[in-house]
């Protein structure tokens, strides 16, 4: 009798740990805890752990990186970007000198304005750029309030991201994938994910 109760207890504990929400967290922590600094672990594995199509391998859980960068509209003032539970987060990497970035920025702005009220948490990061030129670009395209200038730590955290590109999370703050060589068609695919994941 005691053996049966003990077996059932272990069975339900297994179900809870591996199938419940808590189980996802436990598995995720085991996956990314290669060092005491979880962000360092994320940095080291951010690109190598993602499939060529931008998706994560089955069973992989990587926390979306938290980072801080200087605001373009308020020089000298840093802003921290954090993936929020219950929201879908995205970080768009662009540059002022990149023609493909200039082409896609108006659509990025429309995407942010359309889905932000529904729970889309987005940040634009100008990478490999001069602050003055990044500010001019962000002002031209009307995205200054959403824009930061990348520092060396951000570049390191995202393992020298390509541009234009977007990294995005699921609603549980885990990295869900990335899209490189971002264009209108690929951005439309991201919008489909936003609508599905946010339930609209």
**CATH class term:** Alpha Beta
Name the overall outline.
Answer: globular
Give the end-to-end Cα distance, rounded to a whole number of Å.
50 Å
What is the fourth-level CATH superfamily? Glutaredoxin
Which spans of ≥5 residues are poorly predicted at pLDDT below 50? 1-48
Mean pLDDT: 79
Q: In the CATH classification, which architecture applies? A: 3-Layer(aba) Sandwich
Supply the helix-strand structural class.
alpha/beta
**Which strand-content bin applies to the residues?**
15-25%
Radius of gyration: 19 Å
Summarize the structure.
This protein is 42% helix and 18% strand. It has 200 residues and is α/β, with parallel strands linked by helices. It has a single domain, classed as Glutaredoxin.
């Amino acid at each position: 009798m005691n053996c049966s109760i003990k077996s059932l207890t272990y069975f339900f504990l297994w179900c809870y740990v591996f199938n419940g929400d808590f189980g996802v967290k436990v598995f995720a922590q085991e996956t990314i805890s290669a060092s005491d600094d979880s962000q360092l672990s994320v940095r080291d594995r951010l690109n190598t752990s993602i499939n060529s199509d931008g998706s994560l391998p089955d069973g992989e859980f990587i926390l979306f990186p938290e980072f801080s960068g200087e605001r373009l509209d308020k020089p000298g003032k840093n802003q921290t970007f954090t993936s929020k539970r219950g929201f879908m987060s995205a970080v768009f990497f662009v540059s002022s000198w990149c023609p493909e970035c200039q082409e896609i920025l108006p659509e990025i702005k429309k995407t942010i304005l359309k889905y932000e009220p529904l729970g889309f948490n987005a940040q634009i990061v100008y990478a490999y750029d001069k602050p003055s030129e990044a500010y001019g670009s962000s002002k031209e395209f009307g995205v200054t309030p959403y824009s930061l200038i990348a520092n060396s730590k951000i570049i390191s955290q995202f393992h020298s991201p390509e541009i234009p590109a977007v990294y995005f999370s699921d609603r549980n703050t885990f990295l869900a994938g990335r899209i490189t060589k971002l264009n209108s068609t690929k951005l439309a695919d991201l919008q489909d994910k936003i609508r599905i994941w946010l339930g609209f």
